[in-house]
Amino acid sequence: MTGRTAPLRLAILISGRGSNMLAIARACAAGAIDAQVTGVIADRADAAGLGAARGLGLEASALPARDFASRAAFETALGARLDALRPELVILAGFMRILGAGFVARYPGRMLNIHPSLLPAYRGLHTHRRVLEAGERLHGCSVHYVTEELDGGPVVLQGRLTVRAGEDEQALSARVQAIEHNLYPRAIGWIATGRLTWRDERAWLDGRPLAAPIVEDFDATEAG
Description:
32% of the residues lie in helices and 25% in strands.
């Protein structure tokens, strides 16, 4: 246990609907994890997740990337906006922008992402389509620390399922997303209680270096 006297402060970055943001915020509000969302920032003014966040009483604002002449200028503004929120942990929740090395270096061991594949397989975009086209039997999602390497930071927790015969991209995406909503709050909760830490540029769980991610199979537990 950390012995902390206040909830872990989270800032969440989104680009779209923000379904993982909502799952995390609801877990915080319900007391399921000892954390508090201090603000939500979207890189698009039309991100539906902004309204959803405000509906939960969260501070939410847009910082449209298209308003900036360069990625560096956008990231400078984003860093200032984040610093004003004083987060202990920055959460990427469907944030569809590649962050530069300098920006990532501002938050070593303090930035998490969830990726819809069993990393290191299928980094990047369109993972469900690529998994189906490759005829993979297993698929899932991965919670990982963010480093300079795209989708390459240490993976701490994975949810795995079996691809169903005849399953299409939309159905597979929905099943994986349901697992994301389970795993992401859980991993944040581990950090809030001190179970999961960042030390010596790697993840530690329960006082030991995490040599491989914790993997959970969801075939037996998922609904539908």
